[in-house]
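A student in our group prepared the protein record below, which I am reviewing. What it holds is a sequence and that sequence's fold in token form. My question to you is simply how this chain folds and whether the tokens agree. Do not assume that whoever made the record got everything right. I have pasted the whole thing underneath without changing anything:
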Amino acid sequence: MTEQKKKKILIVDDDEFLLNMYSVKFSKQGVDVETSPGGEDGLRKLRGGYSPDAILLDIVMPGFDGFEFLEKMRTEKLAQNAVLVFLTNQGQSTDIERAKKLGAAGYIVKASTIPSEVFNEVMKCIERAGQPGA
């Protein structure tokens, strides 16, 4: 990357294989990656001051789901400038609508997307959020 500030992302997913795979993919592209195996751990990192440019969030996780994570994050005013992208296998239109209503910048269905497409979509969402009037 050029002289730009290195982008930071937090990936919240209970699938360890996917956490590792996406962590490697984003890291190889020069992105600083933090991972969390569930919502409570993700919130703990945000409460501790971690301020990512983007959060990739699964919906179905033990404890509480991705929507609840987002609601708690908003209530506690954590990572207010982070771009939120759902990365999930839930492809129902009701889930997509709910994500949009909660302010998600993107919604990616894992089963139909390869890691490089996920990376490109997340970076586009970060870019769009950084543009005036976005």
In short: The longest strand covers residues 83-88.
